[in-house]
Design a protein that fits this description.
With about 260 residues, this protein is of the alpha+beta class. The chain has seven helices and eight strands; from the N terminus they run ααααββββαββαββα. Helix 6 packs across helix 7.
Length: about 260
């Protein structure tokens, strides 16, 4: 009697041992194959010079999909009915989805960002109360690095619901510099000085041509606006250099300010 029971236990253990070994093999090989597929897709998209945002997003989606398939196959090898498992996962997913509606909204917003591409990795944007360079766009959030080198994580739903300004979308930008002068100042002389500064600055584009106009007649002085076009990547550098040169020429030419 005891010998029969022991033999039955040994047979059961042996049967399940092979199932466990098979599930482990499926898990190891499946994860290895999933990694190969992800690397292959990454290489193909990179070779075709696809936007880095799309590459990262595709890798995240593939990781979730392939790992899920491998996990279900391993569980099936253990003898668990996968049909009921998938149904349970679906029910659990629905319950989790209802509890995490905001997170699902972030995922949907992330897909909208990828499809319509209002901004991408490397762009300097302003939105949802923050401004900085986009470093990563994930399923639920976007990572932005501010000029102070601070990382800000913004939920994607806030970026699609709020106004977003993309300063890097165009190759060129118009730079405006407003300087006040006294009413007694010689306007023609000021125009000549500003025009000379603009003509000598290498960062200023010749086309469209620069413009120098009176912006406003204020109570304490005249506001003169200098408008020039520069390459987007040179915007801040050009602004600093022009401000410095205007200050130096105002001092050397003794131009009266308010």
């Amino acid at each position: 009697m005891w010998e029969a029971a022991v033999e039955e236990v040994l047979r059961t253990v042996a049967a399940y041992s092979w199932r466990i070994v098979g599930a482990a093999i499926i898990l190891v090989i499946g994860l290895w194959l999933a990694k190969l597929v992800r690397n292959y897709v990454d290489r193909v998209l990179t070779a075709r010079k696809v936007d880095p945002t799309v590459i990262y997003f595709a890798d995240s989606a593939l990781r979730i999909l392939l790992y899920g398939v491998v996990l279900i196959a391993a569980v099936h090898r253990l003898g668990v009915e996968t049909t009921s498992l998938v149904a349970m996962l679906g029910a659990a997913g629905l319950a989790i989805g209802l509890a995490l509606r905001q997170q699902l909204s972030n995922v949907a917003s992330g897909l909208l960002i990828i499809i319509f591409h209002p901004f991408g990795v490397g762009d300097y944007i302003e939105g949802a109360g923050s401004a900085g360079t986009v470093e990563r766009i994930e399923l639920m959030s976007t990572e932005v690095r501010t000029p102070e080198n601070v990382t800000v994580i913004i939920p994607n739903s806030r970026l699609t619901a709020d106004k977003v300004t993309n300063y890097s979308h165009r190759d060129t930008r118009r730079l405006r510099i407003v300087i006040g002068v006294n009413y007694k100042a010689d306007l023609q002389k000021i125009r000549d000085v500003l025009q000379g500064i603009v003509d000598e600055e290498d960062l200023v584009l010749k086309e469209p041509p620069p413009g120098i106009t009176i912006k406003e007649l204020g109570d304490k002085g005249i506001k003169i606006e200098t408008r020039v076009w520069v390459k987007t990547q040179d915007y801040l550098k050009a602004k600093v250099r022009l401000n410095e040169k205007i200050k130096e020429h105002y001092d050397s030419e003794e131009i009266p300010v308010p």
